[in-house]
Write a structure and sequence with these properties.
By secondary structure, this protein is of the alpha/beta class. Helices cover about 45% and strands about 10% of the residues. It has a 5-stranded mixed sheet with strand order 3-4-5-6-7, sandwiched between helices. The protein has a two-stranded antiparallel ribbon with strand order 1-2. Helix 1 packs parallel to helix 9.
Length: about 350
């Protein structure tokens, strides 16, 4: 693959990721129960002597929604479909620049896609490969950015094709896992029709050899196409970090072909202090993953930090709890994950980009 071919390929990825991709409030709260003591004579006592004793006792409230209620349709209140003559959500009209006929075709394809893949109830159905998919392709939600947009990190350079093949995880499994995450984002975390996300695409470990790999390239093309066709106008900003310098050259070749609104949402960074500062400025110190920083000391570590530096956010924990609850309801269990227990070897593979390039 020459530089020109790589240029157009990454232009496709960058442009599609922009098309794709209520502040989160932790559901760990309590339900307060008021107990009035005094029985039948309480009212009389209150009028003649003193007010009845009222005590607050905190009772634990389930942190998870009812699994059976987790069915979400393509149309939502406030998305523009209620007032549209063809019941089209505004995002699909925007995707087609106001061309109603094209928007109708695109939305019809979206409805067919949701039915074919049972997306409406994907959060209700068991997902036993949840942990395995995250291990093969590290994609996670560290929190919200400074503007309260959901942040999604995609570590493309750590795609472990060998691990996936060994554990029977296909590219379609990874795509459906990501759809599970996206549906969680837009239906549980932030159901506002106009909600958008900030995407961090980490290219550490990506080389020309990675793009030449037909299996990985095919997965990325299908992944980006699926997201852009079915979740249009959901992007706030895309940060492409740890980008090899040849990607800068490639991007300059195709930048004039992109719309100004698309170019404004893309930032390509090559590591170093400038990248670290931009991540902290956009994501905020509280929600910037330390493992993405060239200088992790810029953010204080926590007791939960492991050797890899990645700490599951409250959002990730609650999403996984929901997945486990669905598994238990259906009498299933999470498939086991086998990690590289030698963490030095794991870090070495990560640094060399061998996750994406093995095989």
């Amino acid at each position: 693959m020459n530089l020109k071919t790589a240029a157009f390929y990454f232009a496709f990825l960058a442009k599609k990721s922009i098309v794709e991709c209520t502040p989160f409030v932790s559901q760990h709260n309590t339900n307060k129960c008021l107990l009035v003591r005094g029985g039948e004579s309480a009212e009389a006592e209150a009028t003649t002597t003193e007010v009845p004793t009222i005590e607050e006792e905190e009772q634990p409230k389930s942190t998870l929604p009812d699994i059976d209620s987790l069915i979400f349709r393509a149309r939502k209140p406030g998305d523009g479909s209620e007032s549209d003559p063809d019941q089209l959500p505004s995002r699909f009209l925007m995707m087609q620049k106001g061309n109603r006929e094209k928007a109708k075709v695109a939305f019809e394809h979206h409805l067919q896609w949701r039915e074919e893949h049972q997306v409406d109830d994907i959060l209700k159905r068991p997902h036993p490969k949840f942990d395995l998919c995250k291990s093969m392709f590290p994609v996670y939600i560290p929190g919200l950015d400074q503007q309260n947009h959901i942040v999604v990190v995609q570590r493309v350079g750590l795609i472990d094709k060998e691990y996936g093949n060994k554990h029977g995880i296909s590219g379609d499994d990874l795509i459906m896992h990501y759809i599970y995450m996206v549906e969680y984002c837009w239906n549980i975390l932030d159901s506002a029709p106009g909600a958008v996300m900030t995407t961090v695409m980490d290219l550490k470990g990506v080389r020309m050899k990675t793009i030449r790999d037909g299996q990985i390239r095919g997965f990325l093309n299908k992944f980006v196409g699926t997201m852009s066709n079915n979740y249009p106008n959901r992007s706030n900003k895309t940060l492409i970090i740890n980008a090899p310098h040849w990607i800068n050259t490639a991007y300059r070749l195709v930048k004039p072909l992109l719309r100004s609104s698309t170019r404004a949402k893309i930032s390509i960074l090559n590591g170093g202090k400038v990248q670290d500062q931009m991540l902290i400025d956009i994501l905020g110190a509280d929600h910037t993953p330390r493992e993405l920083l060239n200088d992790p000391s810029l953010i204080p570590s926590t007791e939960e930090d492991g050797h890899s530096g990645h700490v599951m956010s409250d959002i990730e924990k609650e999403m996984r709890d929901l997945c486990i609850a669905s598994l238990e309801k259906h009498g299933e269990t999470m498939l086991p994950v086998h990690f590289f227990w030698d963490w030095k070897e794991c870090c070495s593979r990560s640094a060399e980009g061998r996750y994406a390039n093995d095989g």
